[in-house]
Task: structure prediction
Amino acid sequence: MPKVTYIEASGTEHVVSVANGTTCRDAAMDNDIPGIDGDCGGACACATCHVFVDPAWLDRVGRAVEGEMEANLLQFVPDLSENSRLACQIDITDALDGLVLRLPASQH
Amino acid sequence: MSVSEIFSTDVSKIPLDEMDVSDPLLFQNDTIGEYFSRLRAEDPVHFTPKSRFGPYWSVTKFNDIVRVETDHKAFSSDAGIGGVAFGGIGVPTESSAMGGLEMFIAMDPPKHDIQRKVVSPIVAPSNLENLEPIIRERAAAILDSLPAGKVIDWVDLVSIELTTMTLATLFDFPWEERRKLTRWSDVVTASPGNGVDSWEQWQRELMECGMYFKELWNQRAGGEPRNDLISMLAGSPATANMPFPEFLGNIIQLIVGGNDTTRNSISGGVLALNENPAEYAKLMKDPGLIPNMVSEIIRWQTPINCMLRTAVQEADIGGKTIHKGDKVVMWYLSGNRDSEVIERADEFLIDRKNPRQHLSFGFGIHRCVGNRLAELQLRVIWEEIVKRFSKIEIVGKPVRTLHHIIHGFTRMPVVLHPR
Ligand code: HEM
Ligand code: FES
Result:
């Protein structure tokens, strides 16, 4: 199974195995990783699964598309960055084995 | 047989097209739950052809509500075509001098987005860290001032007082006059005979509110940057030159947003714990459950029953075709009891898994910007309550608010039992 590393704002790392097709939000919730709330259940409706994609992975993961719901929601998160994504919109595939995601200090 | 039993309606016998869930009495006498259960089971996206607010759709299931919330291109919040308050808050817009009241909760993009971005940072978690010790200190002072063993009104002495204090802190509002904030918040949702005597009085009091804030704004504009909401609005290029109605609208939106809702969650939590003694016992045994419990209280209470949208293009929701111009009411109170999404939805469980998955704050671009502040207040007050009291005992029937949007209480007699 592909592995994903979540790094909390404090620097604490969590490496988890994620089945193909699972979203990075679900994987974080299933593994009780602190720092992701995922309030809407992964419906791209709350922006409480905000993550920063490691720049080395950004091209493979892709960016939020301007004008679509993910980008509409991301514009309001604190600390919005070039590599911000909503974890519920990232599906794990073999191509993302080794993905590194950093978590913001808080979700709003 | 009690009087209420003699007069009670058999909800299962009402013809479907006569099911009108906008009657404020159903919320005051707390029978609305039966109506929503039936709609969720038999007609989850329900059309009511005739009501005192005209024809409207009721969306009653969790996922359908999320669908409407996230399709802001089809479902507009714009005040010009209907806004978000079903039936309007206050006077019908056309006939009113307040008609121009503008708030970003009732705007569509792009204007909504610009204004929300200005207000959002002050209620973001990082900024709230600065606020927490002040809120805690004030919560402690309120609780320490309460007489033990005597019947008191929890709504007035605690719920209102605490939320008013927080708002005053947020606005850096003159301390001695803070109950003005409470009054203005009540006036916004009042109507003649229910909080005000006439629309004239309604308008006059909100104008006073506007002038008062305008004065504070003038004092703070151009001054040192400060961390209160008024200074932030006055200091940001996006809002510094707001026309007066928009300014007043934004202020009122923050007063109402932050007042009634949090107040009623504080009261609602006390009722829920009294009705569920096993949960109260869990809380006293493990106060570490408080953050979890706070989300559960907000789901359970659902301080805002519903929000309105107006369809601006045809859309399909739950197999029904919604036409352009149709009014669509999202009933959060019903969606929060949808057992297809929330396990054991009809039970109040303070240690529930995933308690944050509820509709009370809405979803999509209008999702409550003050949600973390609300949670903070509730967490702090409960942390301070359990330190002091073994029980807040409800000793008389709480009086519920007569309103189809605001879900709350006007009175709750309690006796405090010190630890
Ligand atoms: C338990 C307490 C609260 C509840 C249940 C609540 C509920 C809501 C709901 C349902 C919405 C509209 C969502 C939609 O249209 O989709 C909303 C929006 C809003 N709330 Fe709250 N609220 C609470 C506390 C607060 C507080 C403390 C503040 C202010 C400091 C606040 C300020 C706002 C504002 C400004 C909006 C408009 C957001 C936008 O349109 O982008 N609320 N709230
Ligand atoms: S979980 Fe809500 S937007 Fe990702």
Observations:
- The helical segments of chain A are 24-30, 58-61, 69-74.
